[in-house]
């Protein structure tokens, strides 16, 4: 499901001071092109990967073209050019390219002037892959669960509800009295536990419906279920449906400090994940992570039998992929896997890119 609001929220933020970027050396990819014409369906990450070994380093060699309006956004039809300034690689954009077929059949490309809406800009990462996690996923504390209003029943003594039904929730703290807005109906489940410290990092709350308050008397909330993705049941919790868009400018960047995290949760996968899958990490805001941070993923080396000495040895770990953080909570984060050379498993490490700290 491609959400237009999410597409609009992703614009290509490239005007970032070099002084604030990680100091890792930029390496051009073998066989890189000298130019590339942006197409529908491209992402900033994919385009960067055509030129660079590490796509997140795009801002380090971006050269602003002051002659075009809003040079921080990239659109289908734009031409990305690779050049060198004082021996250093630079990428720049030529806004909009017009195709013209000549008499000899050769396609001639020339710049053209046009007005383009900002929401047509290509996203930094695939918006469709993370839309549901922005809209429907929460990580909450045990206290937040205990204090949230919860469903106690509905009409006709039913215990299962859906779109169009009226349900009743008890709000013992009357914290939303007088507010007129929609709320999310959530089911709490997965407990996130740090695999090393055993600290409880939070609880997964999954949105299964939306409701609008029709009445509020004392501790009792009356809600009209406006939509549902599965059966709504007694004891489901009510949380505010805040607007959870990725910030308007998503900068690919290394964390400000060294981060060493573990993958602690898959979604809709059993044994392993790969490119365009979403994972949960055991690090968050308190550990210095923020939206747009890039982490390298490492898989543990296989344990093999040493036939000469007769004991078991562990082979060195290997980099198996990379991910971008797109949503951050206090103690955990959601990341989208952007690259994977091998299957990625639970408890694999996710760390700051080598040379960035």
From TrEMBL:
SMART domains: LysM
Protein name (Swiss-Prot/TrEMBL): LysM peptidoglycan-binding domain-containing protein
SUPFAM superfamilies listed in its UniProt record: LysM domain (SSF54106)
Pfam family, one: LysM
Keywords: Signal
Ranges of residues in domain LysM: 34-82
Organism for this UniProt entry: Alcanivorax profundi
Origin organism lineage: Bacteria, Pseudomonadati, Pseudomonadota, Gammaproteobacteria, Oceanospirillales
Residues spanning the signal sequence: 1-24
């Amino acid at each position: 499901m491609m959400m237009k609001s999410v597409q609009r929220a992703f614009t290509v933020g490239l005007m970032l001071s070099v002084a604030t970027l990680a100091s890792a050396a930029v390496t051009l990819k073998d066989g890189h092109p000298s130019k590339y014409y942006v197409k529908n369906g491209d992402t900033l990450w994919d385009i960067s990967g055509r030129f660079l070994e590490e796509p997140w380093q795009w801002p380090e060699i971006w050269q602003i073209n002051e002659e075009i309006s809003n040079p921080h956004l990239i659109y289908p039809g734009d031409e990305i050019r690779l050049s060198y300034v004082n021996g250093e690689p630079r990428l720049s954009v030529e806004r909009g390219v017009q195709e013209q077929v000549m008499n000899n059949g050769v396609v001639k490309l020339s710049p053209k002037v046009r007005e383009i809406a900002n929401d047509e800009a290509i996203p930094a990462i695939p918006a469709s892959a993370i839309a549901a996690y922005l809209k429907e996923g929460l990580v909450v504390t045990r206290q937040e669960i205990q204090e949230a209003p919860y469903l106690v029943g509905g009409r006709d003594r039913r215990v299962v509800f859906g779109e169009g039904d009226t349900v009743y929730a008890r709000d013992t703290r009357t914290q939303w009295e007088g507010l007129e807005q929609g709320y999310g109906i959530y089911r709490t489940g997965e407990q996130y536990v740090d695999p090393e410290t055993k600290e409880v990092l939070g609880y997964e709350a999954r949105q299964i419906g939306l409701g609008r308050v029709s009445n509020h008397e004392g501790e009792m909330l009356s809600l009209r279920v406006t939509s549902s993705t599965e059966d709504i049941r007694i004891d489901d919790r009510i949380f505010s449906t805040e607007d959870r868009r990725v910030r308007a400018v998503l900068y690919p960047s290394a964390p400000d400090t060294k981060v060493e995290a573990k993958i602690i949760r898959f979604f809709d996968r059993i044994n392993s994940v790969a490119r365009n899958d979403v994972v949960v990490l055991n690090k968050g805001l308190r550990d210095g992570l923020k939206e747009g941070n890039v982490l390298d993923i490492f898989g543990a080396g296989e344990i093999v039998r040493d036939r000469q000495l007769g004991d078991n040895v562990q082979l060195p770990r290997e980099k198996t992929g990379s991910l971008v953080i797109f949503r951050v909570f206090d103690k955990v984060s959601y990341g989208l896997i952007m690259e994977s050379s091998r299957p990625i498993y639970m408890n694999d490490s996710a760390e700051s890119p080598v040379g960035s700290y």
